[in-house]
Write a structure and sequence with these properties.
Largest sheet: 5 strands, mixed
Number of helices: 7
Radius of gyration: 17 Å
Length: 211
């Protein structure tokens, strides 16, 4: 019926975190990175229906292999899958810095999940906080590139990883401001947390059906 990220973006645009603007980008940070774009009050799908695949903007030449077939896509560095990959790599090293993650996973690095990392970070585990901060840096740099191209009024961040709250969003905002084209000489797009949660897609697609 509709791309899930487009539907979520429309839901947040009409009834959620971006209902007060005409131009917005919704980025869902989960297993991968989904993107939805509203320009001048209309959902943007592109000439062939595959526009706004923001997670597949290439950021590292010859980087990690992505499910799309390319290497170095943003979602390989700024998604829940990237967080888990890096946490498991740290734990596999048996470093003292991975002690809490190994404790949570009963000593099995492959059992580490994103919620485990987020929970450890909330409990004050510094390596887990650093893993989330690294993810936030990649995400913020990606948002800065999107802003240079599309100049939205608002970015809405949703998806499961966004539940990490300020542990993710503070480094995201810092990296965004540091890399924003024309910083200090232009209005700065706001970064907001999605408000509709898992209902955003359902709300959005229901509303799109009557637009």
């Amino acid at each position: 019926v509709e791309n899930d990220a487009n539907a979520a973006a429309w839901g947040e645009f009409r009834y959620g975190a971006a209902e007060d603007v005409d131009d917005m980008i919704c980025v869902t940070v989960g297993t991968g990175i989904g993107g939805g774009l509203v320009l001048d009050g209309s959902i943007y799908r592109g000439a062939h229906g595959v526009g706004a695949e923001l997670g597949h903007m290439r950021v590292v030449p010859d980087g990690h292999l992505c499910g799309c077939g390319n290497r170095g896509c943003l979602e390989q560095y700024a998604s829940g899958s990237a967080l888990v990959r890096e946490a498991r790599a740290l734990a596999s090293s048996r470093s003292v810095f991975a002690a809490r993650l190994l404790e949570l996973s009963d000593g099995d690095p492959e059992a580490i999940t994103g919620p485990m990392v987020t929970g450890a970070a909330r409990d004050g585990d510094e390596p887990s906080r650093e893993l989330l901060a690294d993810l936030g840096r990649w995400l913020g740099e990606g948002l800065a590139s999107f802003a240079a191209l599309l100049d939205p009024a608002v970015f809405v961040i949703g998806g499961g990883v966004s539940e990490a709250g300020d542990l993710l969003l503070t480094p995201t905002a810092a990296a965004f401001r540091r890399n924003l084209t024309g910083r200090g000489h232009r209005p700065e797009p706001e970064i907001r947390v999605a408000t509709l949660g898992n209902d955003a897609g359902i709300v959005g697609v229901a509303d799109l059906a009557r637009v």
